[in-house]
């Protein structure tokens, strides 16, 4: 079964999914070892620098979880992953991040037989203060303007993208607001991945109730891998309650 199909099935059955972001600059195998029972898929990527990606992702396969690349640039691709978020950073000021980077990666994705998952990557305040905002030349969507984000989601849907990633930035002070998630979902109905600055399981819980289909955490688990189980439980609990 394709990765996107598998994730959609999880969302259908559980009401939500949980991805853990592994930064190839960290010791991802040690982290994965401790958290793999509590994830639906691994996201692998970083915005500043990639080394030994092939080797690390190859080893990650032993955990038998879907491996989805979350490339910060064309060097974020490896044949050892299963799928790739085929992203356009729609609210960048630089066409490189909107369309050139994904275009330059397209042939490699085909050759490596990676499954492309068409994704609108949207950077929301305070992302400008984080690595992705700096690297991605963003025109930041204000945190208190949910309608702007929702319009981007609708536009993404009209372009044929099936996913939108609402990103507050890795390590962000504040995550994307529940109001913004709600409106994005209501207006577009597109699958929503939400990440950046989600530091507590209760916060993840509320994001799922607001309409997030997938929650991503990264930094916080680098500090305390024990949190993975708590995040997983909260995300799944909210997923079940969402249907009621
Ligand atoms: C599809 C292909 C081949 C490329 C797409 C390339 C695009 C559009 C990238 C968007 C811009 C960008 C720099 C995204 C980075 C996303 C990412 C992997 C963030 C992970 O977090 P870090 O920014 O590394 O966090 P830390 O600073 O905490 O390490
Ligand atoms: O590291 P954190 O803040 O959890 O963010 C994860 C991810 O959304 C970044 O792209
Ligand atoms: Mg990183």
From TrEMBL:
Spell out the InterPro entries in the cross-references. GGGP/HepGP_synthase_sf (IPR038597), GGGP_HepGP_synthase (IPR008205), GGGP_synth (IPR010946), IGPS_HisA/HisF (IPR050064)
Which parts of the sequence bind Mg(2+)?
A: 23, 47
Q: So where does sn-glycerol 1-phosphate get bound?
A: 165-171, 196-197, 218-219
Which prosthetic group or cofactor does it need?
Answer: Mg(2+)
Q: Which CDD domains match?
A: PcrB_like (cd02812)
What would be an example GO MF term here? phosphoglycerol geranylgeranyltransferase activity
Q: What is its main location?
A: cytoplasm
Q: Which GO terms describe its cellular component?
A: cytoplasm
The cross-references to Pfam families, in alphabetical order and at most eight, read: PcrB
Among the GO biological process terms of this entry, one is: glycerophospholipid biosynthetic process
Does the record's keyword annotation contain Lipid biosynthesis? Answer: yes
Q: What does this protein do?
A: Prenyltransferase that catalyzes the transfer of the geranylgeranyl moiety of geranylgeranyl diphosphate (GGPP) to the C3 hydroxyl of sn-glycerol-1-phosphate (G1P). This reaction is the first ether-bond-formation step in the biosynthesis of archaeal membrane lipids.
The text of the family note is: Belongs to the GGGP/HepGP synthase family. Group II subfamily.
* Name this protein carries in UniProt: Geranylgeranylglyceryl phosphate synthase
């Amino acid at each position: 079964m394709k990765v996107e199909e598998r994730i959609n099935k999880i969302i259908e059955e559980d009401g939500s999914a949980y991805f853990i972001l592994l930064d190839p600059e960290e010791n991802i195998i040690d982290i994965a070892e401790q958290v793999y029972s509590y994830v639906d898929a691994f996201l692998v990527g970083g915005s500043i620098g990639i080394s030994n990606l092939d080797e690390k992702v190859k080893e990650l396969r032993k955990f038998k979880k879907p491996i989805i690349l979350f490339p910060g640039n064309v060097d974020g691709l490896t044949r050892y992953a299963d799928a790739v978020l085929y992203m356009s950073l729609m609210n960048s000021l630089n066409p490189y991040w909107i369309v050139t980077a994904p275009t330059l990666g397209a042939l490699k994705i085909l050759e490596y037989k990676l499954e492309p998952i068409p994704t609108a990557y949207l950077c929301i305040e305070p992302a400008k203060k984080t690595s992705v905002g700096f690297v991605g030349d963003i025109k930041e969507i204000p945190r208190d303007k949910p309608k702007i984000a929702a319009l981007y989601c609708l536009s993404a849907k009209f372009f044929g993208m099936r996913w939108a990633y609402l990103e507050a930035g890795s390590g962000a002070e504040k995550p994307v607001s529940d109001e913004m998630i709600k409106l994005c979902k209501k207006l577009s109905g597109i699958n929503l991945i939400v990440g950046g600055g989600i530091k507590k399981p209760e916060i993840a819980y509320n994001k799922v109730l607001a309409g997030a289909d997938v929650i991503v955490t990264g930094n916080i688990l680098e500090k305390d891998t024990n949190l993975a189980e708590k995040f997983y439980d909260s995300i799944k609990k909210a997923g079940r309650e969402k249907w009621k």
